[in-house]
């Protein structure tokens, strides 16, 4: 079969990128014989055939099937059986199939020979069946778009910026709309703006790979937000600049930001304290209220650290309370009570080192004086029973 060739779209910088040649062997277009659905035995002209098929083969509830049948008529089980077989062959679970058909029932009438190359293309760039099924279930729109006119040109553009297929796949996992929208409308102008602000390519790549939705907002909003973040004191040359863009992009994130702001206020942080923590670790402003409250309660009320210490080291708010913070703090309490370490112990000294470094410095070093430290660290023994 002759290779299909697509040219890379014009980029926001003048660099030549080779075209993508995506070739599908003709033999691969032959789908396996579809499994016979329970509805296949029902006469296709029966007025309830579509509803029965949606219930028995797609897992829809009777009410949902009845509503769906108003915009979908299945003349027979042959085509939908082939579509369902294709989905199952590519790792879709029954629950995912049910959700997919509920959102896009007309996919049951799609030509499997047109759908198959789309699956093969995404697999060819390193997206696993599991991740692809999850992405398409969340938003099946991608399956309705042309491989030649939309999907491959979008891939060419993203690959030209992100360089690796792995990063393109990560961007798609975050939002399928990075493959669906016209890049020239907002994405390219926003990328150009970051370039004008001297944001390093590594930071641009980080934003497009992990938070592409931030770059896909309207160019006017993106320009205004970028200016505001710079005026807050963020350095465009540092990673925290693009992370702050992500934090303040979209109404959902802004709502979480405001909620976090109020939570930190309740712990005695001033406006300057909150800005300091935000500039050190922007994502501390989109944590859940429950996570902030539990961690602050333990560090401030149980361990006795002033909340201002967390302002200077907000990354500790991301650590697991049960797996990291409590075990390490319990060991520190034992060592403090026995006078083996100094009382002015900083959060960064105790919580930031990796596990091997922590164990070497605080457990192995003192295991002869306090043999129970291992049990305290592994939460097999309460620190109060050792003191």
Automatic annotation (TrEMBL):
One of its GO terms (biological process) is DNA-templated transcription termination. Pfam families: mTERF. Keywords: Transcription, Transcription regulation, Transcription termination, Transit peptide. The keyword ATP-binding does not apply. One of its GO terms (molecular function) is nucleic acid binding. InterPro entries: MTERF, MTERF_sf. Belongs to the mTERF family. This is Transcription termination factor MTERF9, chloroplastic. It comes from Arachis duranensis.
């Amino acid at each position: 079969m002759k290779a299909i060739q697509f040219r890379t779209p014009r980029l926001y910088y003048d660099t030549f990128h080779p075209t993508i040649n995506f070739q599908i062997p003709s033999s691969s277009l032959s789908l396996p014989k579809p499994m016979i659905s329970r509805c296949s035995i029902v006469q296709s002209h029966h007025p309830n055939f579509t509803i029965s098929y949606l219930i028995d083969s797609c897992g829809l509830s009777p009410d949902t099937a009845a509503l769906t049948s108003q915009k979908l008529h299945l003349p027979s089980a042959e085509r939908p059986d082939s579509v369902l077989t294709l989905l199952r062959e590519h790792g879709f679970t029954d629950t995912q199939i049910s959700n997919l058909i509920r959102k896009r029932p007309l996919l049951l009438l799609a030509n499997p020979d047109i759908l198959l190359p789309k699956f093969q293309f995404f697999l060819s760039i390193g997206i696993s069946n599991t991740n692809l099924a999850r992405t398409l279930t969340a938003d099946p729109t991608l399956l309705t778009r042309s491989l030649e006119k939309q999907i491959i040109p979008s891939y060419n553009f993203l690959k030209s910026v992100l360089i690796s297929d792995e990063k393109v796949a990560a961007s798609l996992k975050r939002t399928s709309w990075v493959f669906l929208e016209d890049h020239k409308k907002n994405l390219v102008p926003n990328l150009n703006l970051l370039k004008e602000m001297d944001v390093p390519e590594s930071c641009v790549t980080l934003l497009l790979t992990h938070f592409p939705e931030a770059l896909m907002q309207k160019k006017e909003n993106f320009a205004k937000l970028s200016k505001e973040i710079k005026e807050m004191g963020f350095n465009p040359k540092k990673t925290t600049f693009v992370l702050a863009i992500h934090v303040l992009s979209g109404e959902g994130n802004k709502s979480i930001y405001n909620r976090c702001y109020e939570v930190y206020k309740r712990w005695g942080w001033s406006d300057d304290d909150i800005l300091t923590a935000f500039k050190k670790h922007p994502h501390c402003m989109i944590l859940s209220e429950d996570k902030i409250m539990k961690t602050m309660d333990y560090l401030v009320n149980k361990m006795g650290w002033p909340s201002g210490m967390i302002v200077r080291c907000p990354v500790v708010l991301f650590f697991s309370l049960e797996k990291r913070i409590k075990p390490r703090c319990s060991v520190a309490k034992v060592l403090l009570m026995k006078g083996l370490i100094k009382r002015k112990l900083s959060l960064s000294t105790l919580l930031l080192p990796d596990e091997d470094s922590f164990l070497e410095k605080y457990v192995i070093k003192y295991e002869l004086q306090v043999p129970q430290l291992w049990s305290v660290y592994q939460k097999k023994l309460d620190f109060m029973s050792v003191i």
